Every structure is written in C-alpha cells, then in structure tokens.
C-alpha cells in the first residue's frame, strides 16, 4: 500500500512538472532567439484558456482544442510583428518594461471582458473515470495530460533537433552573425518562434480544463 501511495505522488509530481515545463519551453524559446524576456507570457496562456472555454460552448471540446491555439498564435504573430520586433536589438530593460506593460493591459482587458470570477469548465465525459491496475487507481484524465505533455515535449525536441528549421534556429541562437553572413534572415524566424511558443502548451487538449482553473485564479482580484 505504501508503494502504491508513493507511485501516485511520483505521478502527481511528474504531472505538475510537466505543466511548468511546457510553460517554460515557450518562454525560453522567445528569449533564446530574440533575447527578449517576455513578462506577458502568462497573459497569452490566460487568453488561450478563456478562448478555449468560449469556443467549447459553440464547437465542443475538440473544436476548442484546434481553434484556441490557432487564434492565440495569430495574436502572438501580430504582436511580434508590430511590437516585439522593435525591441530585439534594443536595451533589454526596454523590452522588460514593454512586456510588463503588455501584461498589465492584458490582465485588465481580460477582467473587463470576462470578469474576475473563475469560469467553470468541466472535463469531457469521455475523459472521466479512473484506471485500475491491481491496487493502483489513478485518474484517466491526469494520465492523459501527462502523456500529451510528454508528446508535446518530444515533438518540440524533434522540431529543433531533426529538422532544417530547427538547425537554423539553434544556429541563430549560438551565432546569429554567422547565420546572417550565410544569407539566412532571422527576422522571419522570430515570428515562427513566436507562433510555436504561443502554441506549445495550448495544443494539449487535456490541459484546457487545467488552464481554465489556473488562469482564472491568476486573474482573480487579490484580497
């Protein structure tokens, strides 16, 4: 029985670590290529959570899984093109101030549109239930979230390590001057990186319910 309890806590720890890992991946992708610390990173995740809740009412859980990351990626592309790109070569302090201001604007905008109270978003019926293996009982939904997180990390690793795009990205991070001397423009990669990092976590259908609960608590007013 003790071994079963330890196993449950280990899986819970892996699941919590997977959440933080997926968030950190998006933040590190932006910083590694653009040199910009995006303090508004959490605002994009909150926006994705609210969009998933809204879209699920009209197109269902599967439709929200598809269209929510696409919508946030499009918003991220527009912001990168007209706002972030101006600060890639500027003083890092200016980028910090800009993203901090963007986070404040996003926070108040979300409160204005959706309110400060948490918005409920239930687990789809197909994902409810437990998995029973001997004396081990664990949520099917949580195991699916862990599997999707592992798949997202593996897909990102493959993109950066095994594709021509990933090789250019890694070269641009290590030696951008040499990449530019070879005639490869890194300005387009900033936008691609932005779209990828804006979608890394939100592409998980199993994380929508978790995001909605976490993000609504984040934007709730402080007592």
Describe the structure.
- The chain has 223 residues and is mainly α.
- It has one domain (2-219).
- It is built from eight helices and two strands; from the N terminus they run αααββααααα.
- A two-stranded antiparallel ribbon has the order 1-2.
- Helix 2 (41-82) crosses helix 3 (92-114).
- The radius of gyration is 19 Å and the shape is globular.
Brief synopsis:
The chain is mainly alpha-helical and 223 residues long.
Shape, principal axes of CA atoms: globular
Q: How far do the termini sit from each other?
A: 41 Å
> DSSP strand (E) fraction?
under 5%
- How many domains would you count in the coordinates? 1
Spell out the helices and strands N to C.
HHHEEHHHHH
Number of strands: 2
Number of helices: 8
Strand order of the largest sheet: 1-2
Radius of gyration: 19 Å
Q: Largest sheet at a glance?
A: 2 strands, antiparallel
**Secondary structure: helix percent:** over 70%
What secondary-structure arrangement, pairings included, does this model have?
Elements: H1 2-34, H2 41-82, H3 92-114, E1 130-133, E2 136-139, H4 140-162, H5 164-174, H6 176-181, H7 187-199, H8 208-219
Keywords:
single chain; 223 residues; mainly alpha; two-stranded antiparallel sheet; 2 strands; disordered C terminus
């Amino acid at each position: 029985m003790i071994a079963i309890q330890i196993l449950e806590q280990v899986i819970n720890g892996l699941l919590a670590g997977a959440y933080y890992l997926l968030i950190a991946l998006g933040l590190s992708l932006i910083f590694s290529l653009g040199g910009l610390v995006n303090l508004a990173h959490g605002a994009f995740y909150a926006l994705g959570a609210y969009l998933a809740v809204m879209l699920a009412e009209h197109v269902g859980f599967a439709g929200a899984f598809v269209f929510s990351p696409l919508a946030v990626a499009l918003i991220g592309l527009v912001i990168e093109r007209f706002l972030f790109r101006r600060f890639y070569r500027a003083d890092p302090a200016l980028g910090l101030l800009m993203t901090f201001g963007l986070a404040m604007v996003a926070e108040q905008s979300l409160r204005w549109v959706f309110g400060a109270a948490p918005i409920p978003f239930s687990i789809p019926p197909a994902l409810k239930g437990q998995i029973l293996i001997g004396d081990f009982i664990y949520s099917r939904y949580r195991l699916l979230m862990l599997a999707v997180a592992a798949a997202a990390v593996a897909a990102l690793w493959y993109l950066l390590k095994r594709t021509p795009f990933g090789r250019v990205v890694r070269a641009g991070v290590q030696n951008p001057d040499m990449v530019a001397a070879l005639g490869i423009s890194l300005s387009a990669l900033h936008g691609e990186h932005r779209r990828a990092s804006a979608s890394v976590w939100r592409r998980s259908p199993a994380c929508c319910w978790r995001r909605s609960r976490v993000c609504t608590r984040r934007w709730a007013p402080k007592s």
